[in-house]
Design brief:
The structure is a homodimer. By secondary structure, the first copy, chain A, is an alpha/beta fold. Chain A contains 10 helices and 22 strands. Chain A folds into 2 domains: about 150 residues, Beta Barrel (Lyase, Ornithine Decarboxylase, Chain A, domain 1), CATH 2.40.37; about 220 residues, TIM Barrel (Alpha-Beta Barrel). The longest helix of chain A has 22 residues. The two termini of chain A are about 40 Å apart.
Chain lengths: ~400, ~400
């Protein structure tokens, strides 16, 4: 048998049926009409946001990076709970505005913004996080053409990275933002050109579970923002210090100590450097807010043995949950937390089961030799930690299977 | 600089503009209306099929595994050139029938077929490649309910794998087919139940460039089919010996020697074992027929330098070409062949350029430090070998960007 990641501790069952917001998941599947089904629980999102609001310094803005999960009912429910949405495309701009989020609380990052995307964002009054001098020139030109003063922040490629992060987005040569040594010149030039300068966006990495590394990165980020603002000679209205808060997907992962991070950040921000007096600060989180709120439910279609190993074949797969198959940004395949949702929390013998998606490719493995109760066709498999980078980040059309259903509860 | 895979040798240019079927790609982009654009050239598909027909033994069936590329105009054009389509879902069944392919020339493999998919396939008269005893029981039951005699082949998990293949689909415990030692019993039982037994499906791996390994696997496959047929005591109408023919994606890859494979297979099939006298044989290929026919065209949105490295940011990315980013079934990221399509085949100095997709994630790297002519915004980047597992196998909705356009030429 191989280990799996930790099942979030708040999940309970009634007579062996996994509950989400008090409902048995079989009933939720009936309500949705079919499997595979993503269920997102707003209670979990609210609890994560409350935990953060409590732990972080007063006045710290909280942004939702909607790339993590752009499901429309979820956006509509999260919007009132956060201070802004961060978007990464023209499509996300439409979704963000459609959710009711005010344009002045939206900021747009992304290294390859097309002219039509810049134009739509500038016309709407969204802040553009500039990724290069070339993009700044295009944004200023488009602002003139459409007769709107563009709201521009400068995204900085910091001189440090976030240690222990799943994906490094700073340190060394990077496609994101401008190198720190050119950032203040770019800010000065957009101010001189008459744009509304919104401040800095500094994002050093993602999916880190090491609080000390995050604390160190946040302190370095604020220090960098102060130095750059000094060079500009102006106070940035907003400093987006990025995110990078991870969630425990894999065996041995422990939840992030956000209390410790909040205390350290409070210390950094209580007496900010002169050049940041009056600046607001924002934390930009996607995965951290929504990953644990999602459960992917997929039905066992077949149970078979091959050379002494047991396989449960399900009606879902990597076309909905690419990351759980280990094919998206991970080098070594490890098991997400998984359970038989209709045999949840039962005492009794377990056996090693490999959960295989329905796709006709050996890549489609959702769980490798995990310990589960005796599995039968018709059982519902739950894959936890499915609220971020699931439905929207998977190759939904691959092999012509149908897309997953999605459902929000607790809103 | 880092090496890239070989650009297919037949590509030419006119005044630096890459040509596909005699047209400059800039004109093709104008015709399609935008980038990113996949262009598929039927001339290349026809040439690959002609090469195979010439190299392989007379009478060998050639099937297209449509999972490689289900673009409707491509299916309609390939259908008349091959002996059948292999499908992997109910969605692909609809696409195959919609393309005009006759149901009796379609076979359906896939470890997680749902009851509704089995029903649709049996009613249409499609051959089901049975993946387990449980699936056989379901197929027989559905056949009775709908009053149609099911056409059933048995998919065998062989006791050997395809050496050097990118993905192993046989050898050891596998989710595909039934273990070889149980295959003849399953065939006997479906015959006894009154189904139409269509034969064997034996698929040992994919994306192999080693002709000797493929020859060895094919000989072992035919020998296994003979042994199993002996055990059944009946001649299989068709033996699908799988595929596994690879294409040269990466540095150092050489085209497969299909002539050698054809000669060896001819020797195997000229005097088939008694139990296979009268059987037809089929080769099932997806990637091999279409990968080299496709070019992905994406426009440079921005050119920027970071810490001395040059980045070309394009309007496409892994949401269309996941495999080229190294995030789908590969452990080590290597470069697909890539070029500046409007500066193709020109003499002159080159520089190291990293081609980065537009997605706001460090995973979205399409080419890492490849040697290209001086790159500018507006340039068209061509990624070759984009005809298989591109548009349909990538997370199209990720980050809210628009889907790629697709176009077939030469049909």
């Amino acid at each position: 048998m191989k280990p799996m990641g930790p099942i979030p501790p708040w999940f309970e069952a009634e007579e062996g049926m996994l509950l989400i917001e008090g409902s048995g998941v079989a009933a939720l599947v009936d309500e949705a009409g079919d499997t595979p089904l993503f269920v997102y629980d707003m209670n979990v999102v609210r609890a994560k946001i409350a935990l953060l609001r409590d732990a972080m310094p007063d006045g710290l803005h909280l942004h939702y990076a909607m790339k993590a999960n752009p499901y429309a009912p979820l956006l509509a429910a999260i919007g009132p709970l956060v201070d802004g949405f961060d978007i990464a495309s023209g499509g996300e701009l439409e979704m963000a505005l459609g959710s009711g989020m005010a344009a002045e609380r939206i900021s747009f990052a992304g290294p390859g913004k097309r002219d039509d995307e810049l134009r739509a964002a500038i016309q709407a009054g969204v802040t553009i996080n500039l990724e290069s001098e070339g993009e700044a020139a295009r944004a200023l030109g488009i602002g003139e053409i459409v007769g709107v003063t563009p709201r521009l922040a400068v995204r900085v490629n910091p001189d440090f990275d976030l240690k222990g992060s799943g994906m490094k987005m700073g340190g060394g040569a990077k496609p994101f933002g401008v190198d720190a040594e050119r950032a203040s010149a770019l800010a000065r030039s957009v101010i001189a050109a008459g744009a509304e300068w919104r401040g800095w966006h500094i994002f050093a990495g993602s999916q880190a579970l090491d609080a000390a590394a995050l604390m160190e990165t946040q302190a370095a980020t604020v220090a960098l923002a102060a130095r750059l603002s000094d060079e500009v000679g102006a106070t940035p209205p907003l400093v987006n210090i990025g995110g990078g808060f991870g969630v425990p997907y894999f065996p041995g992962d422990l939840p992030l100590d956000v209390k410790a991070i909040g205390l350290a950040l409070e210390e950094v921000l209580t007496l900010p450097p002169d050049s940041l007096r009056g600046s607001a600060f924002a934390l930009e989180l996607g995965r951290y807010l929504v990953a644990e709120a999602g459960v992917y439910l997929t039905r066992v279609v077949d149970v078979k043995d091959s050379h002494g190993e047991r396989f449960a074949i399900v009606d879902g797969g990597l076309h909905h949950q690419l990351a759980a198959s280990g094919n998206f940004g991970t080098v070594v395949r490890r098991n997400y937390p998984v359970a038989i949702a209709n045999k949840f929390g039962l005492e009794g013998p377990e056996q090693a089961v490999t959960v295989e998606g329905c796709l006709c490719t050996p890549l489609d493995r959702l769980a490798d030799k995990v310990a589960l109760p005796a599995v039968e066709p018709g059982d519902l498999i739950a894959i936890f930690l499915a609220g971020a980078y699931g439905a929207s980040a998977s190759p939904a059309a691959f092999l012509g299977h149908r897309p997953a259903l999605e459902m929000l509860v607790g809103d």
